[in-house]
Amino acid sequence: MTDFAKLIPELPKWNNGKGIEVSEWIYCMGRFDHAVAYADLFWPEFTVHDGCVMFASFDLECYNTWMKHTSDDRRAVEAVMNHRHIVDLFHEEESVVGRDLVMHLGRTIQDMWSCKLKRDFPTRQITVSFPSEHYEDLTDYQVTFFHENHEEA
After folding, report:
1. Rounded Cα distance, 113 and 138, in Å
2. Cα(3)–Cα(148) distance, rounded to whole angstroms?
3. Domains identified in the chain, total number
4. Which residues contact 78 (CB under 8 A, 6 or more apart)?
5. Is residue 112 part of a domain?
6. Does the predicted model carry a pTM greater than 0.85?
7. 81: domain range?
8. Which residues of the chain have pLDDT under 70?
């Protein structure tokens, strides 16, 4: 079970130190516009282009540049264009974001993208990757997805 008080240090401070459950905290602090934006992060829209599964908002010029740069390696292009660095997703300074928070969020995004990709593309073998090893630099933690084998796509 997730220890939200550890991930969100503000929770135990609520109610004169008695704390608050994460679901109640959302009721007090949450915003609809933020929820819509986070929903797009956690459950994004995808599209297929040239046999590649990409975020629906991908940049065609960038795609073409990466295809040239990688000698048409679709797996490599998917991996680089479909990645998100966890600490870059928010306006927080890296120094105030802990490893536990980055790992929890990265694994959650990995799980959600995996479910969405399997739902949207049930016949494709798409890997959603997030590192399990320990990195000193939190910016090294990124989640990405790519086809295992483009010949099957």
Report:
1. 21
2. 34
3. 1
4. 52, 53, 54, 144, 145, 146, 147
5. yes
6. yes
7. 45-147
8. 92-96, 151-153
